[in-house]
Write a structure and sequence with these properties.
With 282 residues, this protein is α/β, with parallel strands linked by helices. The protein is built from nine helices and ten strands. 43% of the residues lie in helices and 15% in strands. The chain starts with 5 loop residues before the first strand and ends with a helix.
């Protein structure tokens, strides 16, 4: 399926990210949905990363969440977008929907205001999950300084049966570096509640500025400053062997599809070994 951007009134990324068992789709326009649906029929399973579809009048990039924004109109825009996305997910039979939560800022709001908005938003997301019978996975990120703690997100999500956590290892590393906290302590906080895992790698945030999402590969090692992918997989799959694994790759660092396929095959083998090893522990 073609995944080039459309040069229309709004540019859509039209992302189809491979997963160990299917794919994840993100940021398509309304007019793209019929073709996308036909493509997904051939997939063994798939997930949706909100938004899908992306409203033409959405007030920012598709990945931006306004759930904790001081502007009520922007908050409503995100809620409306999520309702449409979860509705599509239910109609199409998606495994789950990934949701960005904290956004970029809550400027002008008190700490109490932010927490109140967080709980109200979580309750509304949970209601969507229950009403449409589609789990929602809230992706951890630390870009909003008013809601950046991994433990706060865990505590919030734990109160709602329809919500789980998506652990994006790249954003988790950036978050740990921004907050000045231990990366593995942060990951250990999130891992027991993680039901989907987004894999890409970096050394520092400068890598994201230069390469966006660098694909994982066995040559990009912890000794070179890259994320310790085998250790992440062991940690997460120890808690949930069925955790869905998605490759959120960009091709800037290494455009060779064969090189990216090597990394994905490496992860497939690592994941199988982790599940087997952890089953033996039980």
């Amino acid at each position: 399926m073609e995944t080039n951007n459309l040069m229309d009134e709004r540019n859509y990324e039209q992302c189809v990210n491979r997963a160990l068992n299917g794919c994840q789709v993100f940021d398509f326009g309304v007019t793209d949905l019929r073709e996308l649906r036909s493509y997904l029929y051939a997939m063994p399973s798939f997930s949706i990363h909100a938004p899908l579809p992306t409203p033409e009048d959405y007030p920012a990039h598709a990945s931006t969440s306004f759930l904790l924004d001081p502007d009520p109109a922007k908050r409503q825009a995100t809620l409306d977008m999520l309702r449409r996305t979860v509705s599509v997910a239910a109609q199409w039979g998606a495994q789950y929907v990934v949701v960005h939560f904290g956004g970029l800022h809550s400027e002008g709001l008190s700490r109490a205001d932010v927490l109140e908005l967080a709980h109200k938003a979580a309750a509304k997301l949970d209601a969507l999950a229950v009403d449409y019978r589609v789990p929602l996975h809230v992706e951890y990120a630390a870009y909003n300084p008013s809601f950046s703690s991994a433990q706060e997100l865990v505590d919030l999500v734990a109160g709602y049966a329809g919500l789980d956590i998506c652990l994006d290892v790249g954003h988790a590393r950036v978050g740990a570096q921004m907050l000045g906290v231990d990366e593995w302590a942060l990951l250990e906080t999130l891992a027991p509640h993680t039901r989907s895992l987004h894999l890409w790698t970096l050394r520092t945030r400068e890598d994201t500025r230069r390469y966006r999402h660098t694909p994982v590969h066995p040559t990009l090692t912890p000794a070179g400053g890259w994320i310790d992918v085998p250790r992440v997989l062991d940690l997460v799959l120890r808690h949930d062997p069925a955790c869905d694994i998605v490759f959120e790759n960009d091709s800037i660092y290494e455009p060779d599809p064969g090189w990216q396929a090597e990394g994905e095959a490496w992860v497939r083998g690592l994941a199988a070994s982790c599940v087997e090893r952890n089953a033996g522990r039980g």
